[in-house]
Target: Maltose/maltodextrin transport system permease protein
Amino acid sequence: MSRAGWLSVFVMGLGQFRNRQKGKGFLFLSIQLTYIMVEILTSSLVQGSLQGQPRAWGYGFFMRGIWGFITLGETTGGRFRDNSPVLMIEGLIAILLLSFLVFIWIYNVKDANNTALMYNLTGQRQSSKAYFKEIGESSFAYVVSTPSLILLLFVAIMPIFFAFFIAFTNYDAYHSPPADLIDWVGFANFGKIVNLPGWRTTFVGVASWTIIWATLATFTTFFGGLFLAVLVNNHRIVCKKIWRTIFILPWAIPGMVSLLVFKNFFNQTYGPLNQMLGLNIPWLNDPMLAKVTLIAINFWLGVPYFMMLMTGILTSFDKTIYDAAKVDGANRQQMFWKVTFPILLSQVMPLLIMSFAANFNNFGAVFFLTNGSPRNVAYEYAGHTDILITWIYKMTKDFQMYNMASIMSILIFLIIGGISTWNFMRTDAFKEE
Model:
């Protein structure tokens, strides 16, 4: 490596100064000085040490962040008290900022080294002004999107990291900060799902029902919407606009409102449906009947979306395809299943996969209609109709089992991500792209 590259290893921008690129040198040097000043200004060297303050509280932002992420705190009582989740968040912020600094540092070394080598070969070097102009022209999109990417990193990516790392701690109702500290426990929480009968039974039961629910909720609404779209677009149907308006009304009403209305409508004791029938049917209190009712109501809410989607696709079909099929002797059923359905399925498959993922995490439908009921005594913090996302909600809000809820979130990501990726890669739309 050139001498300019080695200089930039120790002080950012020093190699650029040696290459007579003062603009770039000041830019890299200012970044390094900013980090140093933040560390100094946030330490007790400037603020002053308080009597009885733990030693770690005198560290600067980056040192304290790394210390807090590793230890999750050491002080639980007295005037000063560590808060483990806060220390983890501060540590994640510090690590992300330091990762950005490492990236800039590596780029700074490579830039100084390449510029020096190019000068040795050609005797010419690019000025800082020409460099910034080139960056503005060739990488304008990256420059403009950088603030948004940084904001996304701290608003969206960092909470995901935080939830991920919580799975490796003992953060639960028995370790509740700031009264208590939490500790790293490694993969012990994952072992509970395999080794403890209660957690194993709950996970297998809830995960199985979640997959069944997502599959049935997706395909019933898909084929229901397809049936209505074909029916409404039939040339024998009159007043098509009126029928479309009627069928789309369930989609126009907010889903939460509809679910709360159905919850009262299917109430076993005072629900209008049982009163009209003169029966005492436990629509939402029997485990199997509650699941059937949930799928039926989701059918009511989800069919209009697929109906409108299919209608748009069907009206855009090239009619000459059907003329060719008629010449080949195909009847109406053969034209639908051999021509219409394959083309339609290839176009809606990505949306069908997205619908499956949405139903897999359809919190509102289960929560507002059954709230996971009826109760299952064999489950840990879950009912018969709970899906993984509502189980996670109960574990966090009602029982403060944050570590186990984090594990379930990771498993949901792996399941949904794996299924969606596999299906997307098999679709014609993905292959064409």
Q: What stands out?
A: The chain has a mean pLDDT of 87. The first helix runs from residue 3 to 10. The chain is about 70% helix and 0% strand.
